[in-house]
Amino acid sequence: MTQPSLSPNSVPTHVAVIMDGNGRWARSRGLERIEGHWQGYRTLKRIVYAADDLGVRYLTVYGFSSENWRRPEGEVSGLMSLMAAAMRAEIEELVQNGIRVRVIGRIPDLPPDLQREFEIAMERTRHYTGMTFSLAINYGGRAEITDAVRRIAEAVRDGQIDVGDINEAEIARRLYAPDIPDPDLLIRTAGELRLSNFLLWQSAYAEMWVTPVFWPDFTPELLMEALEAFGKRTRRFGAVVE
Ligand code: IPE
Ligand code: IPE
Ligand code: MG
Fold first, then answer.
1. 58-65/14-18 β-pairing
2. 12-143+182-231 belongs to which CATH class?
3. Where are the domains of the chain?
4. What is the pLDDT of residues 63-110, one digit of tens each?
5. Which residue's C-alpha comes closest to atom 10 of ligand 2?
6. What whole-number distance in Å separates Cα of residue 50 and Cα of residue 56?
7. Would you tell me the crossing angle of helices 73-96 and 33-54 to the nearest 10 degrees?
8. Is the CB of residue 138 below 6 angstroms from any atom belonging to ligand 1?
């Protein structure tokens, strides 16, 4: 597959990806948007194993946002079926590669058959120590923070914590995947320069890398290009680095 020729500090611990441009990829070929999503799935498969080969420890991808329900009914139901079919088709290979699968988002609002596929995948891989592959599905950064705030309010009400003890760590440990470190590198395909409600809290100091290439055309070589660019960045986290 890819030739890992990167220096060690070019490999971020956690790479997050906004996989955008499936619809435009399809329309530019005179295809239905859903065809772009199927092609995007094929790309995702290649990128999961390429990231694993390169030594990435955590890969988180944005698959369906909390705002994507606004799309035409047919596209939404097509995406739900695609995700269930893809999870069913891929689980054995993920298991063979020791990849741990996680799903973040408001999962109870998804169709029951999709929830079941996700639960099976998470359960079967929960003790794996290879790369953690997280799918953000029915995910919104604001919804995630809102859910955390609600849980903190409950903890205060139940006398478990005092208002004065609410701090960043108390919020962070109530997010959907509190054990996963913040993303180091955030990749967005298809050129838009926005977060679209992805990992708002966690991306505070993520390095961003945007390519005009539509997600179905994304390649392991472009992933390496992003990693190389990341390796040349100076991360300051608000401090002075001389
Ligand atoms: C990203 O591709 C996949 C999802 C949001 C599910 P889009 O479907 O947003 O593609 P464009 O942005 O319309 O081209
Ligand atoms: C973000 O892409 C969501 C996913 C990639 C799943 P969108 O296509 O929904 O973002 P906007 O609408 O262009 O901001
Ligand atoms: Mg889009």
1. parallel
2. alpha beta
3. 12-143+182-231
4. 999 999 999 999 999 999 999 999 999 999 999 999 999 999 999 999
5. 196
6. 9
7. 30
8. no
